[in-house]
Design goal:
single chain, mainly alpha, MetI-like fold, about 280 residues
Length: about 280
Amino acid sequence: MTKDWVKLLFRNRLTAAGFIIVVLFFILSLLAPLFAPYNLYSQNLDIRLESPSRFHLLGVDDLGRDIMSRIIAGSLISFKVGLITVSISSITGLIIGSVSGYNGGWIDELIMRFIDILLAFPGMLLAISIIAILGPGLDNVIIALCLVGWVGYARLVRGQILSLKEREYVLASRAMGASGARTVIMHIIPNLLSPLIVQATLGVAGAIVAEASLSFLGLGTQAPQPSWGSMLNDGQKYLYMAPHMTAFPGLAIMIVVMGFNFLGDGLRDILDPKNGE
């Protein structure tokens, strides 16, 4: 089974590329202190805004700090926000969506109307409003993104359950006296994990972009801690003098997000029950 899964994963070049990108950046984030060539906070004003060279492969910023080291350290923050946000959001959405879809009636109506209210606001604007109340900081960014992000998973799970709960094996389980919770856990959830995994994979990319956007606005990671979004904010003042300050953090965001999108699209094809493989 494992060999078949790996074969399917690497059958498509874009999926394989996405998987490799995600794995490499994940390893890079876990071992950031080992890969960073310089101290993250070490300043050298004598070489500030220096372009890429053999000593500093990606150049230095306005305080003379090595950009490559800070990008590597920033990958840990991006993956931390992405994985924690998606984990909490998907689990919350799974629980609420299961309760809504399986029970139906007024419970379903109440939950869905609440979700409709949340969806009426742009997600990023709602996250900014939450952080404005809680205050800037990485932990508050995660809280805000979780409060905004669970609704998509809840709608997905509810839609899947509305279809699955009328299947023969679910009706047979209920006829045998199984409780609603047991029926959902044992018979319904295993059959809706595939679309949930795909959405979670794509959701990590969205969370990374959201964290970078909030840090760019000064609401996320605070100085001197490195973040790809805050690095973009620092570099915009020197866009013409030192374009490398924005180019390389932006490129890092683009590559990682592209990797998760490629991987998510590939998983959609692999986990599709209609796939003949």
